[in-house]
Each structure stands twice: as C-alpha cells, then as structure tokens.
Design brief:
- The structure is a single chain.
- By secondary structure, the protein is α+β, with helices and mostly antiparallel strands.
- The chain has two domains: 188 residues, no CATH class; 130 residues, no CATH class.
- It contains ten helices and nine strands.
- 21% of the residues are buried.
C-alpha cells in the first residue's frame, strides 16, 4: 500500500539513537589474532537497500547497501570511519575482508563502503563515535561453529522502519498504522515518533544540564555587574568632594563621567587579563567533556569577553552619570 507524501523508506534492526545495539568481536583477514588485551569489538546493524540515503548518513568512499546485496551475492559490509581507524589504521579498507564472532570467519565480509561517523548508540555520549558496521538484511551468515550460525538469525529481526516524507507533507500516525495493517494485520506497531524526538529523548539530561549551566552563567554575569556597580558607586561617593571641586573649576559633565569610568574600566581590563588565560587553561581540562566542540573557539571567547565587558561598562556608567549630575555646591558641602 503506497502512502501519499512518503519519499523513501528503509528497514533496519534499530534506528539511530534507539537505545539498542548488536555487538560482536571482529577478526580482520591477514591480521594476527587479537590478544587478550586488544579491543576488537564493534557495534553493528542490519539494513535494507538505500538505508544510508534514507537516514541521511553520507557514504564517503565506495557504496552503501543496495537491493543487489542478496543472499546469493558476495557478502558485504559498510563500515564507518571509526571502524577504519580502529582495525585498518593506515590501510585502505575498501576491498578488504573481515569476519565476526570467530577467527575462522575472517573472510566473511568484503568492505564495499565507508560511511561518515554518526551517533547511533545512546551510551558513552561523552566519547567519540566508536567502530560501527552495517550489513545487508538479506545475507545470512554461516560459521564454523553452528551455535554462532543460530545466533545470527536474531540479527535479521528488523524492528525499526525509517520513513522520510516529502517536503511539506503531513503523514499521520494512523495512516502509517493502516498501511502496516494492510501488509500484515499481525504486525505490531509499538511506537511512532520523529527522529528529532528520538534524538531529543536521548539528550534530555545533557540539555537540562546545558540549560542549568546557561542559567547560572547568566546569574553570575548579573552578580558580577551588581558588584562592579557597587564598587564604582562607592568609589564615586568617596570622591564627591573632588568631583564638586573639579566642576566648580569648570570641568564638564563628560569629563566627570570619563574620570569615574577610567577607574572602573581599569578593573574590567585587569579582570579580563586574568580571566581569559584562566578560561583557556580550563578548556584543556574540560575538552574531553565537549565532544565535537572546540574548547578554544576564538569567536565564542571574544563574544563572551565582549558580553562581560559590556555588562561591566553599563554597571559602571550608571554611577558615573549620577556623579556627573552632582551640584558643585552640594558636593563641596559634603567636605
């Protein structure tokens, strides 16, 4: 049953960030068997033809899984960049063979493509993307060990369907359920949700922490501005007599404002000279918590410094303007 508004469809064992995964050990043809301390594991998924186009995961070299990857065709696999780095280092993996589960199956798959690293798993989010591979759903594997062959059957249960709608199309959940029922009334549809919501559910904790961090950052900025305001107002109050004398001798209001601001701006510059190197050094220790981000982003640093300087300037400007409005006679009377 065709659904209006559907652009493309693919099936997979589990879709990106669906909180599920298959994992196995990898044995590369022509490489020595891994030692007891070697990390030779990887995560994997079984998919149908065109999956990478549907999910929007670019193929950087070679090709993706296609409808021609049937049982009778040579068994193939698509790996991600992390897989290539982990198992092939400086070698070109295209055309190389590897297997999983046991060393005797090291020529099980031929690598036909390299996909760009993408986040598929919901754990170790603070770490870089790990090795991952994709295999055609239509190709069943046979191992020297019969138990492994039986275990491979479970990997062919494709639990997720990925649907891409045409731009502007509105596809309802009921339409999807009706189409599934038309294929097989016994097929259960447990959950339907957008990829955006699936990703949001995975990063809900990180998003909450980011919002709290932003809130406390803004609160710190307000407190710092109030502190500068208090110090500047206090210093201006102590110099009331001096300001009155200067104005009595002909000083303009602009000169009084400049006099008060110069002292405050000196403190601001001193704070920036201390704060910027400290922020740079702290980035070295926090960098492993900012995967995919540069802790020394010059643009972010400049914008942050300008925001702090602007807040401090406004906090200093208020007492400076107030000091410039003092009557010379009232100022001299305070002495």
């Amino acid at each position: 049953m065709a659904l209006p508004g559907v652009q493309s469809v693919a099936l997979c064992g589990y879709s990106p960030l669906s909180s599920q995964s298959w994992n196995d050990d990898i044995y590369v043809d022509g490489h020595p068997a891994p030692g007891p301390n070697d990390q030779n594991d990887t995560s994997y998924d079984r998919v149908t033809g065109g999956y990478f186009d549907v999910i929007g995961n670019p193929i950087l070299r070679g090709r993706g899984i296609t409808a021609q990857d049937v049982e009778s065709a040579p068994h193939v696999a698509v790996i991600n960049q992390a897989f290539a780095r982990k198992f092939f280092k400086d070698e070109d993996p295209i055309g190389k063979h590897f297997g999983r589960s046991e060393m005797g199956a090291s020529r099980q798959y031929e690598i036909v493509g390299i996909a760009k690293d993408a986040r598929y798993l919901t754990y170790d989010l603070e770490k870089p993307v790990d090795a991952f591979m994709f295999m055609p759903e239509a190709q069943h594997d046979v191992y020297p060990n019969a138990d492994y062959t039986k275990g491979d059957i479970a990997t062919h249960y494709l639990g997720d369907i990925v649907i891409v709608t045409k731009p502007g199309a509105n596809l309802s959940d009921s339409a999807v359920r009706h189409a599934m029922a038309a294929v097989d009334a016994g097929l259960p549809v447990i959950r339907i949700r957008s990829l955006r919501n699936q990703v949001a559910a995975t990063f809900s904790q990180q998003r909450m922490i980011a919002r709290l961090t932003s809130f406390f950052g803004a609160l710190s900025l307000v407190l710092a501005a109030l502190g500068i305001y208090g110090v500047t107002a206090y210093n201006a109050g102590r110099r009331t007599g001096e300001i009155g004398l200067r104005m009595a001798l002909g000083a303009a209001r602009g000169q009084v404002v400049g006099l008060v601001l110069r002292g405050a701006l000196g403190l601001i510059l001193f704070g920036l000279l201390i704060g910027l190197p400290a922020a740079y050094e702290s980035g070295r220790f926090l960098g492993d918590q900012l995967f995919g981000l540069n802790p020394h982003n010059v643009a972010v640093t400049v914008v942050s410094a300008l925001a702090l300087a602007a807040a401090a300037f406004l906090a200093s400007l208020i007492p400076a303007l107030r000091a410039s409005r003092i009557s010379p006679l009232d100022a001299l009377r305070t002495e």
